[in-house]
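FAQ: What does the model actually see?

It sees only this:
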Amino acid sequence: MLIDTHCHLDAAEFDADRDAVALEALQQGVTSIVVPAVARHHFDDVIALSNKHKHCAYGLGIHPMYVDDAHEDDLSVLSAYVAKHHPVAIGEIGLDYFVTKANIEQQTHYFTEQLKIAKQHDLPVILHVRSAIDDVLKHLRRAQVVGGIAHAFNGSFQQAEQFIALGFKLGFGGAMTYSRALHIRELAKKLPLEAMVLETDAPDIPPEWVGKNGRNTPVQTVKIAQFLADLRQVNVSQVLDITSANALQVLPKLA
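And it is asked to produce this:
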């Protein structure tokens, strides 16, 4: 079993060949792909995609980089969709201080309200945590959701331990494949494998062999798994077994 826990297969970059991309991943052994929505107008798209491709599952949420275009009633729509459609997680949600800090108050509002929805429906969350890890952790402690995934994790070992203590797994993908990504590689080597899940974030964060300007795809999870195994000097079957079990543990609806 091999699970890509974070892939934006609904993105416009896949409009020309989405079905072929999904099929290629399945044929190469990617047995599950999690597609998190980023805005209200994506909800129907990710649901339809998952209905068409049975190895795809979806999360529903409003991404911090999309809150400037969001409306307050998007939250009530989200809650209604969750009750009707039963996603595997609330996500992609979180905070992003790397792009801008000008709308922190708005980001925080949508994040905390979506944590309440996750808590109400007993669902895990898929987190975006760029340059905002401490604030994300603060709100998680208050919300006490059941856990989830800290996507594209690149924080400190201490922050990793705090996420793990709160019931979260940490997402690793293409970023660790770059030779200059020394910190992420150190995390990938030394954190417990039981705390890690695999992801692509396709079409973004392509691995080094694709190239920074290339399009990432979910089939790259296969080589990412092998890269992690080589980095940790273990058999790839161990990486596949443990990371897949981790994903099913924090996203039980995948099973």
